[in-house]
Design goal:
Order of helices and strands: HHHHEEHEHEHEEHEHEHEHEEH
Largest sheet: 7 strands, mixed
Strand content: 15-25%
CATH superfamily of the largest domain: Periplasmic binding protein-like II
CATH class of the largest domain: Alpha Beta
């Protein structure tokens, strides 16, 4: 059989695999390099190219002193081949984006405050748009959440401090600050502003030792001239959670410092009140954390975008 007869065009359509091998061969410049790049044997690469040429009826590559280069027909094929492979990849991504949001489960992590007051609103907004995806929220302190993200046990996490951890990407997605809360009917609830000394003279409800909220509140009172330890203050009780502090304040036990996120509902309902305290401004940024260069599932990308847009009210 003559070479020309061997290259007689066939009626079979071109395959994505053939076009991919052809592009790799041109880009790499040799059969050996293309085979290594694709993880195939050199004979397999040669076979795909030969089959492509038979189907087209023309040579698409030729050997030169510098390696393999495209023929005139090969040059004409380069653009359409790249467009075809790009369209194939887009098709895969479109289906993946759809099927990834039609079912399955998304696991995310959150430190104490984000898990209790930020993630529920994000998850509710997510669920409304994609009800078939089940979401599991894993709660721990910030260090535990970062470890979960690094280990790929959760796809993304939201923590209350900026993590400087190798292998992680972090971005601020929401802000918070500490506020003084009082019973809604407290005598000081109608004041426009309080001094730290006035706060220090009131019965107080504090978080447990080691709490960042507790330390920030005590630091304020100390700077105002009050005793810097609970022994010098009228601490009526210490609580192990923000919810317990809110319940104690509602019961009239005393005043407390909590996250502004934690009292949105109570302030809207009028069951608690907050009054600014002079010199007390403790802002905090919540950070969304993912593994560096990690591939995120379609569901994780949607939740990330919701967090970037701001937690729903």
């Amino acid at each position: 059989m003559s070479p020309h007869a061997a290259l007689r065009p066939l009626d079979e359509p071109l395959s994505i695999r053939q076009l991919g091998v052809f592009l790799a061969l041109v880009d790499q410049g040799s059969f050996t390099k293309a085979a290594r790049h694709l993880g195939l044997s050199q004979s397999t690469v040669s076979g795909h190219v030969a089959d492509l040429e038979r189907r087209l009826g023309v040579r698409v590559v030729e050997r030169a002193h510098s390696g393999v280069r495209p023929t005139a027909a090969g040059e004409a094929l380069l653009g359409p081949a790249r467009q075809t492979l790009a369209a194939e990849q887009s098709s895969r991504q479109a289906v993946e984006a759809l099927t990834g949001l039609l079912g399955g489960r998304l696991v995310v992590g959150g430190s104490t405050i984000p898990a209790a007051y930020l993630l529920p609103r994000l998850c509710a907004a997510f669920h409304q748009a994609h009800p078939a995806v089940a979401i599991r929220v894993v709660t721990g302190d910030s260090r535990e959440v970062l470890d979960l993200v690094l280990a790929s046990d959760v796809e993304l996490g939201i923590v209350g401090s900026s993590p400087a951890v190798p292998g992680l990407d972090a971005e601020g997605v929401s802000e918070d600050h500490l506020v003084l809360i009082l019973p809604a009917d407290h005598a000081l609830a109608s004041r426009a502003r309080l001094t730290a000394v006035e706060v220090a003279s009131q019965p107080l409800v504090l978080r447990e030792p080691g709490s960042g909220t507790r330390e920030a509140g005590l630091a304020l009172l100390q700077e105002a001239g009050a005793e810097g330890s609970p022994a010098g203050l009228d601490v009526v009780c210490e609580m192990g959670s923000t919810e317990a502090c809110k319940a104690a304040v509602r019961a009239g036990l005393g005043l407390s410092f909590v996250s502004s996120l934690a009292v949105k509902d109570e302030l809207a309902a009028g069951t608690l009140a907050t009054v600014p305290v002079e010199g007390f401004d403790v802002p905090r940024t919540f950070h969304l954390v993912t593994r560096e260069n990690a591939y995120l599932s379609p569901a994780a990308r949607v939740l990330r975008d919701l967090a970037r847009a701001g937690a729903p009210a």
